Amino acid sequence: MKYTNVKFKAHDFNSFNEYVFADIIAVHDGKWVFSKHKDRDTWETQGGHIDAGETPIETAKRELYEEAGATVFDIEPLCDYWTSAEVDGVPFTGHSQVYFAVIHEFGEIPEGSEMEKIWLTSSIPDKLTYPDYFNVIFPIAIKRLNSK
Predict the structure, then answer these.
(1) Which residues are within 8 A (CB) of 133 and not within 5 positions of it... i.e. 6 or more apart?
(2) CATH code assigned at 142
(3) 3-class SS at 87?
(4) Handedness of CA 124, 129, 132, 134 (dihedral sign)
(5) How far is the C-alpha of 75 from the C-alpha of 64, rounded, in Å?
(6) Which of 26, 48, 56, 136 fits 97 for a cystine, CB–CB 3.0-4.6 Å?
């Protein structure tokens, strides 16, 4: 899928009735955790579509493992966001719940994951998959990290 014209707007956690995605902003030993998708040369946080019968928190925990190999972590609500985009040229809007996680232990990224590796860094990478996402969501995550 190709996402274009992507826009984000942050909201308080639990602002919406229905969610399409769950995202995670994660840290380990005070460093941000980014993942690199096998098909892209950019960095992103972990997250994805909510599967049928799954809650947003269940999705967040699954995605944190599938995309970063996180096996032991604490996770808590951060915020919601509204997004609009074109997905393969078709207009789309949806909502996401965003979680903040502190990862204590990693295993291997599972076989079959769409991610090829993780990167722990104290700064936000220059090459981001969704730069506008970071402009909207990261200030909230930084505030949460600094309050810990």
Answers:
(1) 6, 8, 45, 81
(2) 3.90.79.10
(3) strand
(4) negative
(5) 10
(6) 56
Q: Which residues contact 1 (CB under 8 A, 6 or more apart)?
A: 87, 88
Q: Which of 72, 58, 68, 61 lies closest to 115, judged by CA?
A: 68
Residue with tokens 């970063």: 68
pLDDT in tens, 100-147: 999 999 999 999 999 999 999 999 999 999 888 999 999 999 999 998
Q: Which structural domain, as residue segments, surrounds residue 29?
A: 3-146
Query: Could you tell me the pTM of the whole model?
Result: 0.94
Q: Count the domains in the chain.
A: 1
* Cβ neighbours around 127 below 10 Å, total: 11
Which are the contacts of 38, defined by CB distance < 8 A and separation ≥ 6? Answer: 114, 115, 116
